[in-house]
Design brief:
The protein is α+β, with helices and mostly antiparallel strands. It has 17 helices and 16 strands. It has two domains: 98 residues, Immunoglobulins (Immunoglobulin-like, Sandwich); 469 residues, Glycosyltransferase (Alpha/alpha barrel), CATH 1.50.10.10. Helix 7 packs antiparallel against helix 8 and helix 13 crosses helix 14.
C-alpha cells in the first residue's frame, strides 16, 4: 500500500532529525565566515582582466587545496580551481597560496571560498564585483579628491554633499616673508595668491609638490584625452566646455601662477603659515600666511608645469596658454641666472623671523628639475636650446617622486615622439630601452613574491608615501604597455591597483571610502574637523612606512605591515596631492584602456 506523499516528507524529516541527533549527519551549515587571510582587490575586476587572490597561511601546506568562486546571491559555483603555493614567503615569515580565477568574466557579485589551511574550516572572501564599470566611481573620486582640497572657496552641498564646508584661506593678503624680500616687494608686503589645493593633511600650499602633482595629472590627460573628454566629476565647472580634469588642474594653476614674482620671474617656494595649524576646520585656521624664499627648484618645477599647461590648455584658452608659456620662460631664465638657490629651512630660520616649521620640500639635487623643465619647454616651443639640455641628461631610469622629476620629462618626450628632432633616434632608443628594461625587471620581480606585485619586491620601496611609490610603478607599467603593446605590463599595472585596494600585507584598501576595510582616521585636518562624518572619499593614504617618524603606536615593524589607521600617524596615514595624482593616473588609465577594449569588442561584435 502506497504511503501518501505528504507522509513521505514527514517520515523523511523525522528520520533526518533522529539521525542528526545520533551524530550520523551534520545539520545544514551557515555561510562560511569571512576570513581576513584572503587578500584581494576589494572592489573587484573588469571582465577581461587578470583576477588573483592571495591566501596568507602560517606555514606552507603540503597539499594543494582547491577553491571555488561562488555567485554572491545564489551561492552557486561559478569557477573551481586549485590554490598554488607562492615561491617566496611574506616578510613576516608566512606562506601564501595564490588563487587565479581570470576565467570568470560574467558580470556579477562573487566571493571566493576555500578550506582554510591549518584548521580545515571553510572560509570566504569579502564580496567583489566583476563588471566593466567596476572602477568608474573610484576613477572619478581620485580626481574629485582635489576638489575637496580647494582653498579660498566654500564647498557647497550640491558638489560636496555632506562634506560641504565654509571657505578657508582667502590668501588675498599674504605677507612677503623676510627670506623672500626684494626691492619691489620688501618684507611685510601684502600680495594676493588665492585658490590652489591644500597640499596634504595640512593647509599650506607648496610649489615643489604641486609640480609633480600637476605634471602627473596633465600627463594623464595627454595620454587618455578621449576618455577624459567624457568624464564628469560634479565640480562647479562641470557645465563648461573644458574637460573636468583640466578644470580641476586649472584651479591650482591659477594659484601657482601667482607664486611668481612679476618683477624678476623668480618663484616663491611655498605659501604657508609659520607653523602647522591644529586639527581644526579650514575657516578657523587663521594664522598669518607668508610667501617664503624664492628657490631654483620652485622656479624649474613652475617652468615645467606652465610650459606643459601652455600646450594642454591651448585648444581651450589660447590667450591663457600664451600667458602660461611666457611665465614658464621667465621662470626658466631666473633659474638659469640663479642655478643653486636651495631651500634649507633650518638655515633660513637662523637668519629670518618668524621661524617657518612647515613642510620643507628641500631638494639638494636640481638637475632633474632642469631636465623636466627643458623637456616641457622644448615640446611646447621646439627651441633647440632646450633640447640640448635634454640630450645631455643621463638616460637611466628613476621612478618619479617630488624630489626626482627627471622622468616626468622623459615620459612627455616619448609620448610626443613626433616632435623630437630628426637626430634624436639614438637618444630615444636609449631612453626607451631604459624604460622597458626597468619595467620588465620590476614585473618579473613582482611575479615571484608572496603577493604577486612589484611593490613587494623590495623593502626599500616602503618609505614615507610608499603607496605613491606603488602608484608610480603602475604608471611605469602603463607607459611600458603603451610603448610595447605587451599585455604583461598591463597586468602588472592591474596588480599594482590590486595591491592598493587590498591584496597586501595589511588587508587594507588604502583609498578612503572604497573597499570593505579602508582608512577611517586619516591624518587630514579637513576630516578631523568633522569627526561625525566618514573621511572624505577618494584619498590615497601614505601607506606602510617602517621609519614611523610620527612616534605613533604601530602593530608591526615589518616594512609592508608598518601601517596604522590613526589620525596621529602622518608617517603612514596622511593624505597628499602628490600621492593622489599617480593613483588618479593609474586608475583612470586602466579605465580608459578597459573602455577602449570594451568599445572595440562591441564594435567587433
Amino acid at each position: 500500500m502506497a504511503i501518501p506523499s505528504n507522509n513521505v516528507k514527514l517520515v523523511c524529516a523525522c528520520a533526518l532529525i533522529l539521525a542528526a541527533a545520533a551524530g550520523h549527519i551534520q545539520p545544514a551549515q551557515a555561510k562560511p565566515a569571512t576570513s581576513e587571510n584572503i587578500r584581494l582587490n576589494q572592489l573587484g575586476f573588469s571582465p577581461s582582466s587578470q583576477k588573483l587572490a592571495v591566501v596568507v597561511t602560517p606555514t606552507a601546506s603540503g597539499a594543494t587545496p582547491g577553491f571555488v568562486v561562488r555567485a554572491a546571491e545564489s551561492d552557486s559555483i561559478a569557477f573551481e580551481g586549485t590554490l598554488q603555493p607562492s615561491g617566496e614567503k611574506t616578510w613576516s615569515g608566512k606562506s601564501t597560496l595564490i588563487a587565479a580565477f581570470t576565467a570568470v568574466e560574467t558580470p556579477g557579485s562573487y566571493y571566493l571560498e576555500i578550506t582554510e589551511p591549518g584548521n580545515g574550516m571553510p572560509v570566504r572572501s569579502t564580496v567583489f564585483t566583476i563588471d566593466e564599470s567596476v572602477y568608474r566611481d573610484l576613477a572619478s573620486a581620485s580626481i574629485r579628491a582635489f576638489y575637496y582640497q580647494r582653498a579660498s572657496m566654500a564647498l557647497t552641498e550640491n558638489h560636496a554633499g555632506p562634506w560641504q564646508r565654509a571657505a578657508g584661506h582667502p590668501d588675498d593678503r599674504v605677507l612677503i616673508h623676510p627670506s623672500a624680500a626684494s626691492k619691489s616687494r620688501p618684507a611685510g608686503t601684502r600680495v594676493s595668491a588665492p585658490k590652489g589645493w591644500y597640499d596634504a593633511g595640512d593647509y599650506n600650499k607648496y610649489v615643489v609638490n604641486s609640480g609633480i602633482t600637476m605634471g602627473t595629472l596633465m600627463s594623464a590627460f595627454e595620454r587618455y584625452a578621449e576618455y577624459f573628454l567624457h568624464q564628469k566629476l560634479n565640480i562647479p565647472e562641470s557645465d563648461n566646455d573644458v574637460p573636468d580634469i583640466l578644470d580641476e588642474v586649472r584651479y591650482n594653476l591659477d594659484w601657482l601662477a601667482a607664486m611668481q614674482d612679476p618683477e624678476d620671474g623668480g618663484v616663491y617656494h611655498k605659501l604657508t603659515s609659520a607653523s602647522f595649524e591644529g586639527m581644526i576646520a579650514a575657516h578657523l585656521a587663521v594664522q598669518p600666511r607668508y610667501m617664503v624664499q624664492k628657490t631654483t627648484a620652485a622656479a624649474l618645477d613652475f617652468a615645467a608645469v606652465l610650459a606643459q599647461a601652455a600646450r594642454v590648455f591651448k585648444p581651450y584658452d589660447p590667450h591663457a596658454a600664451r600667458h602660461y608659456l611666457q611665465a614658464a620662460q621667465n621662470a626658466w631664465q631666473w633659474a638659469e641666472q640663479h642655478p643653486d638657490i636651495r631651500y634649507r629651512q633650518d638655515e633660513l630660520n637662523k637668519t629670518f623671523d618668524p621661524d617657518v616649521t612647515t613642510g620643507a620640500y628641500g631638494d639638494e639635487q636640481l638637475a632633474d628639475e632642469r631636465h623636466w623643465a627643458a623637456a616641457e619647454l622644448f615640446l611646447t616651443t621646439g627651441d633647440q636650446a632646450y633640447w640640448e639640455v635634454v640630450r645631455s641628461t643621463p638616460a637611466d631610469f628613476s621612478l618619479p617622486n617630488w624630489a626626482d622629476v627627471r622622468w616626468l620629462g622623459n615620459y612627455s618626450l616619448l609620448a610626443h615622439k613626433e616632435r623630437l628632432p630628426a637626430n634624436s633616434a639614438i637618444w630615444r632608443s636609449r631612453v626607451e630601452k631604459h624604460l622597458v628594461d626597468t619595467a620588465r625587471k620590476l614585473r618579473d620581480a613582482g611575479g615571484r613574491n608572496a603577493y604577486r606585485v612589484a611593490m613587494v619586491s623590495d623593502a626599500n620601496n616602503f618609505v614615507w608615501g610608499s603607496n605613491a611609490v606603488a602608484a608610480n610603478q603602475g604608471i611605469l607599467f602603463l607607459e611600458a604597455f603603451r610603448m610595447t603593446g605587451d599585455a604583461d605590463f598591463l597586468r602588472s599595472a592591474q596588480d599594482t591597483l590590486d595591491y592598493l585596494l587590498g591584496r597586501n600585507a595589511t588587508g587594507y584598501s588604502y583609498v578612503t571610502g572604497f573597499g570593505r576595510k579602508t582608512p577611517q582616521h586619516p591624518h587630514h585636518r579637513l576630516a578631523a574637523a568633522r569627526p561625525e562624518l566618514p573621511p572624505l572619499p577618494g584619498f590615497l593614504v601614505g601607506g606602510p612606512n617602517p621609519s614611523q617618524q610620527d612616534g605613533c603606536d604601530y602593530p608591526s615593524n615589518v616594512a609592508d605591515r608598518s601601517y596604522t589607521d590613526h589620525m596621529c600617524s602622518y608617517a603612514s596615514n596622511e593624505i597628499a596631492i602628490n600621492w593622489n595624482a599617480p593613483l588618479a593616473y593609474l586608475i583612470n588609465g586602466l579605465s580608459a584602456i578597459e573602455t577602449q577594449h570594451a568599445e572595440g569588442h562591441r564594435h567587433h561584435d
